[in-house]
Amino acid sequence: MCKQGHDHSHKEGIFGPRTELYFAALSGLLLLIGFLLETLLYSRANMSLGFYLLSYFFGGYFTLKEAIHEISKGRFEIDFLMLVAAIGAAFLDKWAEGSLLLFLFSLGHALEHHAMGKARKSIAALTDLTPKTAFLKKKKNTVEVPIANLKKGDIIIVHPNSKIAADGYIIKGNSSIDQSSITGESIPVDKMALTERPPEMENDHQIPEEHRVFSGTINGNNLLEVWVTKVAADSTLSRLATMVQEAQRQKSPTQLLTDGFQRYYVPFVILLVVLLNFGFLVVDESWGASFYRSMAVLVAASPCALAISTPSAVLSGIARAARSGVLIKGGRPLEDLGGLTAVAFDKTGTLTEGKPKLTDVVPLGSTEKERLLKIVVAVEGLSDHPLAKAVVRDGKKMLSLTDIPPAENLEAVQGKGVKANLDGRSIIIGNLKIHEEDRRVSDIIKEQVAQLEHEGKTTMLVQEGKDFIGILGLMDVPRAAAKPTLQRLERLGIKKMIMLTGDNQNVADAVAREIGSIEARGSLLPEEKVAAVKELMVRESKIAMVGDGVNDAPAMAHSTVGIAMGAAGSDVALETADIALMADKLDTLPFAIGLSRKAKAIVRQNLWISLGMVALLIPATILNWANIGVAVIFHEGSTLLVVLNALRLLGYKKEG
Ligand code: ADP
Ligand code: MG
User: Fold this and answer.
1) Which residues 6+ apart lie within 8 Å of 647 measured at CB?
2) Ligand 2: distance of its center to the CA of 415 in Å?
3) What's the confidence (pLDDT) of residue 7?
4) How far is residue 656's CA from residue 264's CA, in Å, rounded to a whole number?
5) For all residues of the chain together, what is the average pLDDT?
6) 178 is catalytic
7) Are 606 and 305 in contact (CB under 8 A)?
């Protein structure tokens, strides 16, 4: 009977967007004058009737407009029913009550729109963060152009302390950039120019964070030149805003439940109201009295508060989360998040920094260290795995000569390593699994590998043709935030936390020892990660998988909620996850869980308020304890209360 997604574009009038509110106020004022004239001057004369009529006009104007709009679409909703009740009251010569009904109903609507508009605005504010124009660098000069005209490959000038107009990477200058509009993190991030873009960075997401900038973020004190990589409509910020907007339309489980309830409830109410019109046949009263009662019941029973109770909380919750850099894609993940009992984490880049350093280079047999490094750098240069990048970066530093031979035919073996050709010989780099696919690795080598792994190092064995030519050891450190975050999650009641990694068990154990409260499962292939998530789903009711969204996407898809970290830099993560933590910060996770629980609690309170009110008002109106006036006061009052209660989420504090 009540609508949820109010489209109030047609609600604007001569006084601007607040016309509805002013009309409601006028209606109330006219009602008051009419009422005073009637009671004080005992004049039942036309004068007070005149004021009531005017009050009807201002109170009923938007209601009538809305009702006509609905009826033209074949829907009979609350506005129509309220008009019926008001006309019925007038028909019974109860003008004061009729105008009270229209006054309060229009006031309630106006306030509700105003309140919901507040939450909507905080979402719309996201898109307003992008500047309208950019300074495009031409050959001789710079010109100011609308951002819609920017193309990939353009160079824009960003002045100090101004907003960056496009996604791209810095090619000149360095600066501290406030990325809070996207990540929610207000501490500025240092960024610097990428002077020469290496050919292996084919895709934009391969460009390191320290060079990339996002539209809508704020430049620090230095002038920058930015190479544009995305057109305005594809920018991270505009996609984020679109996703948040779409998210609030996704119905949550509770909303589906209340919608289902209303499907039975509304016909029941209509039947009840019709039957009550025949009350005069049963009790000794006039038809007018029966009709009046049925109108009062109609007002009392309209489930407006119920209809708005969940959507308003979901809207506020999503808006609040977005402000702290947490994208929650709909009511379902918002509700699920609070009920999690277990969380699975990816190791690399999630619990650890994801910035491994090459610490050990051990040549085997007669191989020289220099040659081993050259081969490894050449092959890994073709891979965009984080481990490969680290090897290339650090390996190049260790090399005295820089003539790297070209490798070709790279084949990545998920969770195991890579294969490629170099000067006609086959090169295999990876963990023991990739080498043991077709041959045995000697115990002496295994011993050496195990030695490094016990120190918590990720190892790679390098094979050239038939020979093992070396072992590499890499060290990745746990994030500083990992330990405190896991402790907070534990305090929030997350009983089970596990780490799923393709890395060796010894390394996984070493990380787990350091951060505590987590069970480590190593040497998992991507499909084994999925199996581990599925297995956990059986034992725990609701689990989350936290990862980078790139090679963890399948495991995320199989969990109750897939959570991606550092989504600002990765399009894939932004698209695939149910929840995207825009900043590369683990500690937004407990915040999101806390917010979700608060949202759930508010939804529960709202259901009690709305259903409780209906349960009280229906008998009260049937038994004539409450007239139309009282019914409409409580009806509108509970609707407003529910919306205001939901808006409390906008002010949810990060800690505690
Ligand atoms: P994680 O679960 O930590 O994200 P992956 O599944 O991506 O790890 O990789 C698992 C293991 O496969 C790595 O620990 C490494 O031993 C091996 N590996 C993957 N890619 C490469 C590569 N490019 N070079 C060498 N080894 C690799
Ligand atoms: Mg990974």
Assistant:
1) 115, 118, 119, 312, 316
2) 9
3) 46
4) 40
5) 88
6) no
7) yes
Pocket of ligand 1 contains residue 476 by CB under 6 Å: no
Ligand nearest to the CA of 525: 1
> Residue 500: helix, strand or coil by DSSP?
strand
Query: Exposed/middle/buried for 422, CB within 10 Å: 0-12, 13-18, 19+?
Result: middle
Atom of ligand 1 nearest to the CA of 429: 25
Q: Is 77 in the pocket of ligand 1 (CB under 6 A)?
A: no
Please tell me what DSSP assigns to residue 16.
Answer: B
Is the beta carbon of 522 within 6 A of some atom in ligand 1?
A: no
253-276 vs 287-301: helix crossing angle, rounded to 10: 180
Contact 127, 182 (CB under 8 A): no
Q: How far apart are the first and last CA of the chain?
A: 38
Model confidence pLDDT, tens digit, residues 256-284: 998 888 888 888 988 999 999 999 999 99
CA of 504 to the centre of ligand 1 (A): 9
431 lines ligand 1 (CB under 6 A): yes
Per the CB < 8 A criterion, the answer to whether 506 and 457 are in contact is: no
504 Cα nearest atom in ligand 1: 14
Q: Could you tell me the distance, in angstroms and rounded to a whole number, from the CA of residue 387 to the centre of ligand 1?
A: 7
Series of mean pLDDT values for 10-residue runs along the chain (656 residues): 50 72 93 88 75 94 88 78 86 89 88 80 73 92 94 94 94 92 85 82 77 92 94 87 81 88 86 93 91 90 88 91 91 93 92 90 94 95 88 90 85 92 94 88 93 91 95 93 95 94 91 93 90 93 86 87 85 84 90 95 96 95 90 90 93 78
Q: Is 429 in the pocket of ligand 1 (CB under 6 A)?
A: yes
d(CA 615, CA 211): 60
pLDDT tens digits along 557-597: 899 999 998 887 777 778 889 999 988 889 899 999 999 99
- The closest residue, in CA terms, to atom 23 on ligand 1 is 388
Q: Which two tokens stand for residue 493?
A: 């009641």
DSSP-assigned letters across all residues of 134-197? EEEE-SS-EEEEEGGG--TT-EEEE-TTSB--S-EEEEE--EEEB-HHHHS--S-EEE----S-
Ligand 2 centroid from CA 551, angstroms: 6
Q: Is 415 in the pocket of ligand 1 (CB under 6 A)?
A: yes
Cα Rg for the chain, rounded, in angstroms? 33
Asked whether the whole model's pTM tops 0.90, one would answer no
Q: Nearest CA to 136 among 147, 125, 120?
A: 147
Residue among 346, 503, 509, 578 flagged as catalytic: 346
Cβ 352 under 6 angstroms from ligand 1:
no
Nearest residue (CA) to ligand 1, atom 21: 417
Say if residues 655 and 320 touch (Cβ distance below 8 Å).
no
Distance 167 CA to ligand 1 centre (A): 30
Contact predicate 211/149, CB 8 Å: no
Pairing outcome for strands 417-422 and 407-413: antiparallel
Each residue's pLDDT tens digit, 341-391: 999 999 988 999 888 899 999 999 999 999 999 999 999 999 988 889 899
If one residue of 347, 428, 431, 500 were mutated to test the ligand 1 pocket, choosing by the most ligand atoms within 8 A of its CB, it would be 431
